[in-house]
Amino acid sequence: xxxxxxxxxxxxxxxxxxxxxxxxxxxxxxxxxxxxxxxxxxxxxxxxxxxxxxxxxxxxxxxxxxxxxxxxxxxxxxxxxxxxxxxxxxxxxxxxxxxxxxxxxxxxxxxxxxxxxxxxxxxxxxxxxxxxxxxxxxxxxxxx
Length: 144
What we know:
By secondary structure, the chain is an alpha+beta fold. The protein has one domain. It has helices spanning 14-20, 56-69, 104-109, 128-131; strands spanning 10-11, 24-32, 42-48, 73-89, 97-100, 113-123, 137-142. Strands 1, 2, 3, 4, 5, 6 and 7 form a seven-stranded antiparallel sheet that branches. Strand 4 (73-89) and strand 5 (97-100) form a beta hairpin.
């Protein structure tokens, strides 16, 4: 079964993004991985609400902490870098969907903000929607 794309009705502008991210610590997103990655059936993206790249010496401990907290196993194909992130609005969703903008053409056409993004394939029984139902989901964590 193929995962279906979420259609964006509009994108937050730069001011709306800044307002939206107030008090957000991070966002975790889980989507079905391509079928050829059976051992790592979930594509995770963690968006850290910081405009600065993490130092190399803390990238692995940060990933390890997320894996421990969310019972994520076997992370592979890890990309951890500062990336432009846009936010799509869809009438079908309650919260804006974060979108890493890796391509220059996307960065030129979609309003965005820099965030440190950790992108990887892995497994977890805590994300059945992505693993079994082939659905995409994301969750915001707020500063207390």
